[in-house]
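ENCODED BACKBONE
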Amino acid sequence: MTHALYLLDPEPGPAWAPFAGIRPLSELRAGAHLVRERWETFVGAETAAIFALPHLSGFPEPGFPRVEPRRVVPGPAIF
């Protein structure tokens, strides 16, 4: 059975400044790889969507999973 991978950005706070609100946090680099790429490797699935702050919906970058506000997702899924 294949599970869909959804990344959930945390609520913005001082620990994420100045990065929060500019781009999804899962699209930041952690060493040589994006946070998203590390999760995809660990889980063995591609990211179906990133749930981030509402104003980041439709974040335009080539090869990037869709960014949308939080919503109910039918399972099976991994968050």
Notes: Residues 6 and 79 are 5 Å apart (CA to CA). The first strand starts at residue 4 and ends at 8.
